[in-house]
Amino acid sequence: MRVTRRGFTALGAAAIGGATAIGGTVLGGRPARSTEVKLTFYYPIAVGGPITKIVDGYAKRYSELNPGVVIEPVYTGSYQDTMTKTLTALKGGNPPHLAVLLAVDTFTLYDEDAIVPFDELVSSEADRAWMRSFYPAFLENGAIDGKTWGIPFQRSTPVLYWNKQAFVEAGLDPERPPATWDEQVEFAKKLTKRDAAGNVTQYGIQIPSSGFPYWLFHGLVIQNGGHLMNEAGNEVYFDTPEVIEALQYQVDLARKHGVMAPGIIEWGTTPKDFFERRTAMMWTTTGNLTNVRNNAPFPFGVAMLPARKRRGAPTGGGNLFIFKRANEAERKAALGFVRWLTSPEMAADWCIATGYVATSPAAWETEAMRKYVAEFPPATVARDQLQYAKAELSTHENQRVTKVFNDGLQAALTLAKTPAQAMKDAQAEATRILAPYR
Amino acid sequence: MERSIQAIYGWLLALPACLLLAAFTHWPALASFLDSFWSTPKGRRPSQFVGLDHYRRMLVDDPIFLQVIWNNLLYALITVPTSILLALAMALLVNERIRARGLVRLAYFTPTVLPMVAAANIWLFFYTPGYGLLNQILTAFGLPDTNFLGSRDTALWSVMVVTIWKEAGFFMIFYLAALQAIPPVLEEAARLEGASHFVYLRRVALPLLMPTTLFVLVNALIGAFRVVDHVVAMTQGGPDNASALLLFYIYETAFRFWDTGYAAALTVVLLLVLGSISVAQVRFLDRRIHYR
Amino acid sequence: MPEVRIERLAKRFGTTVAVDEVSFTVENGSLAVLLGPSGCGKSTTLRLVAGLETASGGRILVDGRDVTGLPPPARGLAMVFQSYALFPHLDVARNITFGLEVRRVPKAERAARLREAAALLGLEGLLHRKPSELSGGQQQRVALARAIVAQARLCLMDEPLSNLDAKLRQEMRKEIRELQRRLGMTMLYVTHDQVEAMTMADRIVLLKDGRVEQVGTPAELYAKPATLFAAAFLGTPPMSLLALEDGPEGAVVAGSDVCVLPGRPGRGRVLGLRPESVRLAREGGHRAVIESVEFLGADSHLACRIGRERLLVRASGHLDLSTGAEIGLAWPESAVHLFDAGSGRRLEVV
Ligand SMILES: Nc1ncnc2c1ncn2[C@@H]1O[C@H](COP(=O)(O)OP(=O)(O)OP(=O)(O)O)[C@@H](O)[C@H]1O
Ligand SMILES: [Mg+2]
Fold first, then answer.
1. Chain B residues in contact with A432 (beta carbon < 8 A)
2. Mean pLDDT, range B271-276, rounded to an integer
3. Most CB atoms within 10 A, among A277, B90, C137, C236?
4. Looking at residue C257, which CATH number applies to its domain?
5. Which domain holds residue C92?
6. By the CB < 8 Å criterion, does A108 face chain B?
7. pTM of this prediction?
């Protein structure tokens, strides 16, 4: 299949090349390029803004800078859709050359033998230096067997947003966000408002728990000194005391302290709840920074997540992957494109355009970034939090293990199970799923 | 000779349809059946014959499967009769000579023509805790705010309500068509014989609607096991699988977990369910309810 | 058995006047036929009597009791519809006893009355069939049985035979008439078929455009049609109508010098002659030209022309005449009908 496709493409290219050559001779024009490399590039959209236009612009610019390489960006829907399309294309023997996919899907791609590690692609010392230039926390999810399979591209991390006006009304210092778990509860209690009938009109805090509750919860686990999985992605630690305690804390926010809405809190409507003063503080991704900046009808602050034993947050977002099916020339061209796309200038440009965290310290030193930070200081919070960040939950059979964990979290949050029981069950199930990988 | 040429001609005419049916229905069904005895192939782990392992896993090792089946049964048991009864009631009402009949018909039919995702969006707003329409009403009456899609007690029911809201209008069209096919002279005859409107409905109209009811029932049942978009759009099966249904679980297994072997086995179960409903339809509907 | 009296009954649908001040009486135990062309308001009149439509004006009296505002079941009548209106999901027996069940007639009595009605109409072998398994004639009988079993005092029928073939129709006509006589029912019967009306009716109510044209026995309507419309509507073949003009010696047929009414004025008048009362004159008679000859077996129809008018002659046996031939026609004075061309009213021949 693959041979046929490539053979056919090559043949087609040759034929076209021949035709242009003849045309060139007749008209006396430039000699035709017969060594052109075409790269298909799948990318998802997960944040607002004219992403398609930006990506198309990048592709065009790169081709102009590098004659002989043509990047064909293909918008493929959400992360989930992009993964589905990529794997379907892979099984059909026709994967893209390059794709932006969730960092946590690295294991899945690895198990499908779909991607090549960058260590095998780089040749020069400069290349190797480039691979070391990213924030280590962002590289964690891309590492298996001591090799780097994904290069950080559109990465994020959760932060705490607070409503300064609500703080003032509650008699709190509007410039001082909670720094610890206890403070977080204490502040939230002061911020929670009830009407005459006892119904809550404004909650103190909101930590969304729909869809992928594991991500924000992972922050609590890291802060509590725990972690969810090993680096090899074949072991999880769901039923450790650190995790159970963290879950108890999240359950208590709603059930014991009454400072957070009970049950499952929608990820999607949480920013709106914040704007509508249904909650005075919220945890959500840095990716919402621009959204909050544009829509909050009150002054707000952005802070690192509060600490328990330490500060902590998971990373999130997408990496760049290069697929194994690509031939030598294509791999080389793809690497060149990835290097260019993650260069400090481009990383800064992407960060400013989208709100994702720029992936290397050098990017923050660029002219453009300095200007941006000066204008909008909250942008640095995510960067500064990176020193405390860890890889987000990612294992073999990732989607399934994550689902088991999510189900456990939701069971506890909806009081179907105690935190200890929910985590014990999730641990057992995940261990069963991961058994073949040990 | 003539005859056999005719037969060949007939088969040739049927061939495109046969090929399409075979390529897109029979072959995938058969392939799923065969795949269900093999483990999921992965780039680094080729597929192995596992016999009935997938089926054993369903029954013994997979509480989610059992929950999903239970959810789906409950879903069918509630949504099917409710939407049929509602559809019938609405059709009877709309069929009467009431004022602004066209407008009322349109109003009832709107949910049906609305794309599911648009409908789901409307309902997501209704269900939103805090400022969602339903909760605004609840709190206006001093009732506590309810997280409809976010608690396990209400999530499945909330999805059911949307289904009923959407299906009832659709089924109403069938009933309306059937009601209009009943000659009005039958009601006049019944009235002359001393039957009230209610007696006419019970003894004449309803029995005459039986074929429609069965048709709708079978379609609704099959529909109930083929639902996926409502769930995807509204709850993603959550919380903790409280609103997950069979097809959604298959979708998740196949296209999120990429466990195609197990998904094939689940598909076989779904095919069995749908198949038995169809068989019941053919045996029951065709035998019993036929007047003309 | 009741007498039915219709007084100035009217029905309007929006701007359409379907029934316009209709009055007539159906005597106790008699059969009256509502006759008229399509759209003249027969069905509407019947449905007004049944209570299926509300009257816009006038009264309906059954045995002197005003039933105009009563709901259908309170009027104590039965009705047979053109389409029979059998319930498709019920078998013959349940169709017949539907009304009895609804009215909670005890089971034993129901069974007895069903037996009786079924026997009367020869339906005994068909009681467990569904309507879809019956022929048109059988369905018709079931509809009749349903009307009879109610033992209603008054029975209404709206073109009950129009879905049957000609032969069956003839048989059913007789049967219905017999049944009506035997049970002594008062019956109001709608048809647009004048033969049906002539053969069955005690009295015919002839309608046109929602108005009563003439009421009378079939013989009266035949012998003395009150209007041009009645004259043309009844009888097969219908009465020939010839426009008259003034001639030197009296009324002549328009466009000719054939004097048909010597010494009397002709202008504005129409002469009516039934084909059967005109004969061929061996000599003399009024001159006419043969336009066509139709041989029907027992007799022949001659289409003749006098001046601008046409005239039909019914002569017995086979005639050896060819088109274009000139013949003499004669008729007795008593066979002459005279109408006013303007009003269409009958004029006495003086
Ligand atoms: N429900 C109605 N709405 C409006 N107009 C009507 C309605 N029913 C009857 N009409 C009109 O009233 C007039 C009389 O109708 P009706 O049915 O009584 O005629 P009919 O004598 O029974 O004719 P036919 O021999 O064709 O059955 C017609 O012009 C008809 O169009
Ligand atoms: Mg009629």
1. 61
2. 89
3. B90
4. 2.40.50.140
5. 4-225
6. yes
7. 0.75
